[in-house]
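Milestone M4 deliverable, item 7.
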Amino acid sequence: MKLKATLIGFSAILMWSLLALFTAASGKMPPFQLSAICFLIGSLPGLAVLVAKPERLALLKQPAKVWITGIAGLFGYHFLYFTALRNAPAVEAGLIAYLWPLLIVVGSALLPGERLRWYHIAGALAGLVGTILIVARNGVAFDGAYLIGYGAAFLGAFTWSGYSLITRRFEAVSTDVVTGFCLATSILSFVCHLALETTVWPATTFEWLAVAGLGLLPVGAAFYAWDFGVKNGDIQLLGVSSYAAPVLSTLILILFGFAEPSWRIALACLFVTGGAVLAAQDLILRKDAAATQPAE
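Output delivered:
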């Protein structure tokens, strides 16, 4: 069960790797407007399940702390990330925001039944190095003038890692609640859009398809998969494996002609893959132990 849940959680990382491609293809829609539409689309599969199986509506009756955690996680992270991008260069803001996988790994030591090993931390640091190689390929220059943006990115990293770790404590809560989280995030994003942005609609059918792809996968199904994965899978391995997203994202952009290959990307792949293998020692050792046990 744990391996299956971990694989389902990893599917969220694979879907997040499509985020840059779909975003690049979606035109010039401002971020909060795009977030509002995508999270609305992302809630539709969950709503369809609830319509088909109305008895599951009872699963949405959860304590306030569950709803606060979920909405703060999904909307809070995106609000802080967009704020960071508005107030700091994308490279530096992105690097700070991508501290969340490392924070998940370190923070997992606070969870019941979890033990933090040296190879979990080493794997996470290797993944972080791989991410730096990808994101900061043109150099990094932190400037005190962008402290608000850096602070928002740092808070965003803590918000998403905190959401993921706290969600682990709600393992008895059905993933159906993610439907409500997506709807609430869509509404709050729409409010922010009205207050902060000028509406821009996709200009072509291709751009609309990209928006739909965003809503169905990286800003939709991915959150359902992540919820199930962090509740039931190996959260430390998922944290380290999350560093695969920017590397896979870059490889996909290269494949579709939005980026050029380089030695940095190859080296980043080695760091991220090596880090994931390190972090997976628990699963590897458990599998070896099972294989060496004598048959009854």
